[in-house]
Amino acid sequence: MTDRLSIALAQINPTVGAITANIDRIRNARAEAAARGADLMVCPELAVTGYPPEDLVLKPFFLDVVEQAVRELAAETADGGPALLVGAPWRDGDKRHNAALLLDGGRIAAIRFKVDLPNYGVFDEKRVFVPGPLPGPINVRGVRLGVPICEDMWSTDVIETLAESGAEILVVPNGSPFELGKHDQRVQLAVRRVTESGLPLLYVNQVGGQDELVFDGASFALGADCRLVAQAPAFAEHLLITRWERGEDDVWNCADTECVAPPDELESVYAALVLGLRDYVAKNRFPGVILGLSGGIDSALAAAIAVDALGAGRVHGVMMPSPHTAPESQEDAAESAELLGCRLDTVSILPAMEAFERMLRPAFAGRDPDVTEENIQARARGVTLMALSNKFGPMVLSTGNKSEMSVGYATLYGDLCGGFAVLKDVYKTTVYALARWRNAQVPEGALGPAGRVVPERVLVKAPTAELRPGQTDQDTLPPYEALDDILRCLIEEDLGVAEIVARGHAPEVVNAVWGMLHSAEYKRRQAPPGPKITRRQFGRERRYPITNGFGSLL
């Protein structure tokens, strides 16, 4: 009977579909784990393919490549080094499963299938996988390990079955995306499972950006007494070594190891935005980004995130003034670029405005200027950025925030164009908080400068689209503090009018915001992707009909 076991948690950053590269990542981590004396290395859920692989797993030839890669990796474990617990989609006859595979002694020594397939929010695993049977433990170097896979930890059945069938330690591979408050939720849930089972628990999570999801890692381990005995850093690849010994009561105890404190709320949001943008650009092989620098808060923060993610040399700002652009806005855009050290060019949209005015004059005869001419300005800017992107290669970075996208305060084919919207899930009030936080902090791993990166005037002046003389956002919208609170109630909390009014909002304002939220659905369907930060991001986890008669709450 073994009394000691060293388990390495490999918090790696795979790329969906990049099977060879992902296997190399696993192989390199195993080499480090071997050098540090590990008996077993545990990888995140579906680490071989990256998570979530979505409809790739419906392709038989994709699964052929996965199986060949896993069998080749299994053969490498004949070297006497650490066993591997890796996640991969796996076929069992004509069924496809989300699987954890134990590779040891040169072979696939055991396979366990995920039981509880999530089908809510951003998850739709029931679309592509079949649930497995309730599992028993697997034997690793003489120790019986229970392997619940991600969602299997969120309910009691799987872990109860593992405990009753003799598991000694729980090892949980995960692909758990970041959102505000998620880390605490995971730990609290793990504490419940440890309390119920009496077993220590190791939780390994993926890190990195994948389309609109950001995985924060933050892998951890709990002792059988529910004490946090190990904690990996968030938002970075890391190999966390844990060393376990069997006690006299047959309960496994973890020796002292590293416990890195998780980041606070603003730091975690900023880190998620940086990582999400960095990986989106890198994994899709863009040389850099180009964005409109308007002199406003959104573009200033987006540029700061881009420089922190990519470095100043890969960020290109463009100021596109019109006759309505205040001199202060041009000055603020220039100061933003100077503080960040990134390139800034100026391209006036006045010739485009004049050309459209001449072109449309006959068709618009007898009509006064209105929002049509304002939208032409926004679309001229969008065309300008897309032209520069096409000519020189950088991806257009959209700078709109969640408040604007919620109520349609954005122009389709104008400021909504782009390859990635880094602030898509960030409310306007949070934009200001993040800008102030970044001015006072240098995030871990940031490629941008220390000190102030957002001009002070940008933080205090009234936000405006500058599409007509004297325009401000509050000409059209409630104050952002009120608007954001109402939007959170409607989007994240699904509250009704009476509950929102009880928070101090006028019923007619709540109804107006609901109407704007409802009528802007068609715009959001055509908006670029952006990193998920909140509990309910626009996209796959909030699906409302465009054609929808429920447009009033009163």
UniProtKB/TrEMBL annotation:
Pathway(s) annotated for this protein in UniProt: Cofactor biosynthesis; NAD(+) biosynthesis; NAD(+) from deamido-NAD(+) (L-Gln route): step 1/1
Superkingdom of source: Bacteria
InterPro entries reported in the protein's UniProt record: C-N_Hydrolase, C-N_Hydrolase_sf, Gln-dep_NAD_synthase, NAD/GMP_synthase, NAD_synthase, Rossmann-like_a/b/a_fold
Listed Gene3D superfamilies: Carbon-nitrogen hydrolase, HUPs
Keyword flag Transferase: no
Pfam families found in the cross-reference section: CN_hydrolase, NAD_synthase
Domain CN hydrolase residues, every copy: 5-251
Substrates-to-products reaction catalysed: deamido-NAD(+) + L-glutamine + ATP + H2O = L-glutamate + AMP + diphosphate + NAD(+) + H(+)
Binding of L-glutamine, residues: Y120, S176, K182
Record's keyword annotation contains Endoplasmic reticulum: no
EC number of the protein: 6.3.5.1
Residues annotated as binding ATP: G292, L293, S294, G295, G296, I297, D298, S299, T399
HAMAP family: NadE_glutamine_dep
Protein name: Glutamine-dependent NAD(+) synthetase
Species of the source: Azospirillum himalayense
Annotated gene: nadE
